[in-house]
Design brief:
Number of strands of chain A: 17
Strand order of the largest sheet of chain A: 2-1-5-4-3
Structural class of chain A: alpha/beta
Order of helices and strands of chain B: HHHEEHEHEHEEEHEHEH
CATH topology of chain B: Rossmann fold
Number of domains of chain B: 1
Number of strands of chain B: 9
Largest interface: A-B, 14 and 14 residues
Largest sheet of chain A: 5 strands, antiparallel
Strand order of the largest sheet of chain B: 3-2-4-5-6-7-9
Strand content of chain A: 15-25%
Largest sheet of chain B: 7 strands, mixed
Distance between the termini of chain A: 131 Å
CATH architecture of the largest domain in chain A: 2-Layer Sandwich
Number of domains of chain A: 4
Distance between the termini of chain B: 48 Å
Radius of gyration of chain A: 69 Å
Strand content of chain B: 15-25%
Helix content of chain A: 40-55%
CATH class of chain B: Alpha Beta
Number of helices of chain B: 9
Helix content of chain B: 40-55%
Shape of chain B: globular
Oligomer: heterodimer
Number of helices of chain A: 17
CATH superfamily of the largest domain in chain A: PAS domain
CATH class of the largest domain in chain A: Alpha Beta
């Protein structure tokens, strides 16, 4: 709407003008109407009077039938401009005399008959009938017709005056309102100007000037108050802003510092990682470097001990045994430290396989029997019938049990070591529970706190008295955790201890811990060709000491031993001899053990020959993956090696005799290696 | 008989009012039609003339119309004024002879002087001078010689002359409406004095 967007000045002017003009027009119009109506009435009265006079004057003429006189009387109406027709009728209705403005002839329009005395408006004319009487005698009727010229003239004149009057007064109103609207519009425009100035210049110091005390004045007051408030806030805001800027700057500096620190930290972390890697490498190297001489020390001391005993020099046997024991302790220490560092580095993977729990238990008991006997302890094993196979890392399960049991043996004197194995169900899972109890010195509450911590034996004196590295329980704890199991202890000082380990019957490896599983390859059912009665074992190792020790040991076990100094030679010999089994070292010049293993397993003739890895490299998973049957870490536990080779020999012979299964253990529960020992000593005696 | 006469009068008045000129033309100045009109005139004069209030003894005293000399109207005038009343007064028609008791002349309110009395006009004027008597004559010079109204036949139309001074002297008030229709005559002062 255009009207709505007009400026307030114009609106005010317009409103004033419209109002005044409307009022003026209305009042003038009503006055005009009133005047015209009353004037009409006046005209009719006037014409009636006229008729009366003319009627009176023409009474004589009518009485004496004097037409000229009557006509003359009517002619007097020439002076009255608005009367256009006048007629005198005789009593019988005939025309006696007539008058018509401008013509002498009878007017074209005449009333058809004489009507009642009185006036009437008819078609823009005013008509009057008047009875002409003389002394009460009706002489005739006078008819007058007026064209209301006066009336219309008056109306026209009045209208003109009104128009001029309205125009003039409108003009006057325009001037007056133009001048007077300033009272309202000027302060508003001033306010608007001030507002624009504020919004354009953003200067809140400007104030609008109050002119009058009316609503607009109050509006201006309000505006000014608002402005001062805004100004105040603006000031506060600016100072706050400045403060904020300072703070931001400070923060930026802080961030810069932190970034620097972070970079430094990152560098430090990289350095630490580098150091850690270096440490791991160092440890790996060290273990290799340490084990190689230890291997020789232990191996030769054992050989020496046996030979010395055989030669009857009993006094040297004890010394040799001490050397052997010290070497073994050192080896255990090194192994434990290595295990722990591997766990710490998160490099300890799980190699899952399914195995019979009873088998492991038997193995353990057999292994630990000497340790138990040493302190005059008896071992009592109770295996629940519901315990069958479990899927876990057998090596670690074995080590857990070994640690717990050997500890029990170590800290108990003339007591009983108990091992209870059960299968339980909690948390919707199947668990295999191992409980190792003893009647030894027990553990105090204070000692329990650090029980599973590294290098924390219950008492410093204990190390001296009982020996040990103090790493056994820590490693056990870590292994149990690795397999998502639980370990706990119940004990009181002097009352013995019960360690409880719960392992899932089916250990699940998380993706990161996953190591490819592969069942240890079974002994082949086919019969390899052999050229001798003795079973041939091929030993592949670059270390002449190892070759020598292995040859001697295995020869004692009634094997024919062929040694190869490198991978290439070993592969050639294997091809030619088709041995019962092969022992293989990893770290060799030119062609390492992995390569040899790979080639063996990919050769259709040789793939069936079991390979036992004998190495210082601790990577059992890789070895088993590549197809190795067993994985032994140097220095080799001779008992274990004996058990393994016997197993393969028995498997081979059973394959020959087509027996389904040959127990590894003899019927009276004597383990295989005892059998091996017996056989060894028998050979010796021969 | 009377009824037939009334019909005749009505018929006459109608024919007169329609075309008096034609009537006069056709029949000429026939006595009967001429005096019928003249009788009507005399009656009409009574309407436009006011006598002094003292003239009449009583408020309902009749207006006496005297016809002096040979009566040219016959019974027509009696019939015209019969039962007519003006301002409560009726009419009485008397026929008078010259030389009779002047008292009878003086009692008349309207005195028609017939053509037969044309020689006695001055004398008559002298007799009624100062008396409120409307004298109506026919003879030429009647108004000039002091008569109040003279009836004239002009172009077969009856018209009248009025001597306003005579009327004034007689104490009569003649309506201006009558005067506008009349020819106003100035009295010849010498004449009026000489016959006196």
């Amino acid at each position: 709407m255009i009207l709505q967007n007009l400026s307030i000045k114009r609106k005010l002017t317009l409103i004033t003008m419209l109002t005044s003009s409307l009022a003026l027009i209305l009042s003038s119009a009503s006055f005009l109407i009133y005047d015209l109506v009353s004037f009409r009435h006046l005209l009719s009265q006037d014409l009636m009077t006229q008729a009366q006079i003319i009627g009176y004057n023409s009474a004589g003429a009518m009485a004496f039938k004097d037409e000229p006189a009557a006509t003359a009387t009517l002619s007097a109406l020439t002076a009255k401009e608005d009367i256009i027709t006048a007629v005198l009728y005789r009593p019988d209705g005939n025309i006696f005399a007539h008058y018509s403005r401008g013509t002498a002839t009878l007017p074209a329009y005449l009333p058809s008959h004489v009507q009642e005395q009185g006036y009437r408006f008819k078609g823009g004319y005013l008509e009057v009938f008047h009875d002409v009487t003389l002394n009460g005698e009706r002489l005739g009727t006078l008819y007058l017709q007026s064209d209301l010229r006066q009336w219309s003239q008056r109306a026209r004149r009045y209208a003109n005056i009104l128009i001029v009057f309205v125009l003039v007064s409108g003009l006057f109103a325009f001037f007056v309102s133009s001048k007077l609207q300033g009272f309202i519009s000027r302060p508003i425009l001033h306010l608007e100007d001030t507002m624009r100035m504020v919004s354009v210049n953003k200067s809140y110091g400007v104030r609008a000037v109050k002119t009058y005390g009316d609503e607009i004045g109050r509006l201006i007051d309000g505006f000014n108050t608002m402005l001062s408030e805004i100004q105040q806030r603006d000031t506060v805001l600016q100072s706050t802003n400045g403060e904020l800027k300072t703070r931001t700057q400070e923060l930026e500096e802080e961030i810069y510092h932190r970034k620097q620190t972070q970079e430094e930290l990152l560098n430090a972390k990289h350095a630490a990682e580098e150091a850690n890697r270096a440490k791991s490498t160092f440890l790996a190297n060290m273990s290799h470097e340490l084990r190689t001489p230890l291997n020789a020390i232990i191996g030769y001391s054992e050989m020496l001990e046996e030979e010395t005993r055989d030669s009857g020099k009993v006094e040297n046997v004890q010394d040799l045994k001490k050397i052997q024991a010290a070497g073994k302790h050192l080896l255990a220490l090194i192994n434990d430290v290595l295990d722990l560092s591997k766990i710490e580095a998160g490099k300890m993977g799980l190699h899952l396989e399914t195995f019979e729990v009873s088998q492991v238990i038997d193995e353990m008991v057999t292994t630990l029997q000497p340790a138990a006997t040493k302190n005059s302890n008896s071992i009592r094993v109770h295996l629940e019938e519901n315990v069958g196979a479990m899927r876990a890392d057998i090596t670690k399960v074995r080590q857990i049990l070994f640690n717990l049991l050997s500890n029990a043996c170590k800290f108990t004197d003339h007591g009983t070591i108990s091992l209870n194995v059960d299968q339980i169900q909690t948390e919707g899972k199947n668990w295999i529970q191992f409980q190792v109890g003893d009647t030894g010195i027990g553990i105090s509450a204070k000692q329990k706190e650090n029980l599973f911590q590294e290098f924390a034996q219950a008492d410093a004196s204990i190390a001296r008295k009982y020996g040990g590295t103090g790493l056994g329980l820590a490693i056990t704890h870590r292994f149990v955790q690795l397999m998502k199991g639980k370990i706990s202890v119940e004990s009181e000082a002097g009352r013995g201890a019960i360690f409880t380990v719960q392992l899932p019957a089916n250990v699940v490896v998380e993706a990161t811990e996953l190591a490819p599983t592969k069942e240890a390859s079974k002994s082949s059912g086919t019969l390899p060709e052999t050229k001798s009665d003795q079973d041939t074992i091929l030993v592949i190792d670059d270390d002449p000491a190892v070759r020598d020790l292995m040859s001697r040991f295995l020869t004692k076990l009634d094997f024919h031993v062929v040694a190869a100094a490198n991978g290439e030679e070993g592969f050639r010999l294997a091809k030619r001899l088709r041995p019962l089994l092969i022992t293989l070292d990893v770290v060799m010049p030119e062609c390492d053990g992995w390569t040899v293993l790979n080639r063996l397993k990919h050769d259709s003739d040789l793939a069936e020959i079991p390979v036992i890895m004998v190495t210082v490299v601790d990577n059992e998973a890789r070895g088993l993956d590549l197809g190795a049957s067993n994985y032994l870490i140097k220095p080799v536990q001779r008992e274990r090696l004996a058990v393994l080779v016997e197993k393969h020999r028995v498997a081979r012979s059973s394959a020959i005799t087509e027996q389904d299964s040959v127990p590894l253990y003899v019927a009276d529960g004597q383990p295989a290696h005892e059998l091996a020992r017996a056989r060894l000593s028998r050979t010796r005696r021969n | 008989m009377l009824r037939r006469l009334q019909i005749l009068i009505v018929a006459l008045s109608v024919s007169l009012s329609w075309a008096p000129a034609a009537l006069a033309q056709d029949r000429g100045p026939s006595d009967s039609s001429e005096y019928l009109i003249k009788a009507g005139f005399i009656f009409n004069f009574a309407k436009f003339v006011e006598w002094p209030p003292t003239t009449f003894a009583q408020t309902d005293s009749p207006i006496v119309i005297g016809i002096l000399g040979t009566d040219p109207f016959g019974p027509i005038i009696d019939q015209i004024v019969q039962d007519k009343k003006i301002g409560g007064r009726g009419f009485v028609v008397k026929r008078l002879k010259w030389g009779a008791d002047p008292k009878e002349l003086r009692e008349c309110k309207i005195l028609f002087v017939g053509a037969s009395e044309r020689t006695h006009i001055d004398e008559l004027v002298q007799i009624v001078r100062g008396l409120p008597i409307l004298t109506v004559g026919e003879t030429p010079g009647f108004a000039e010689h002091g008569g109040v109204i003279r009836l004239v036949l002009e172009d077969n139309r009856v018209r009248f002359e009025v001597n306003v001074d005579a009327a004034h002297q007689a104490g009569l008030t003649i309506s201006s409406r009558l005067l506008t229709l009349a020819r106003i005559i100035q009295q010849a002062a010498v004449d009026t004095r000489k016959p006196g």
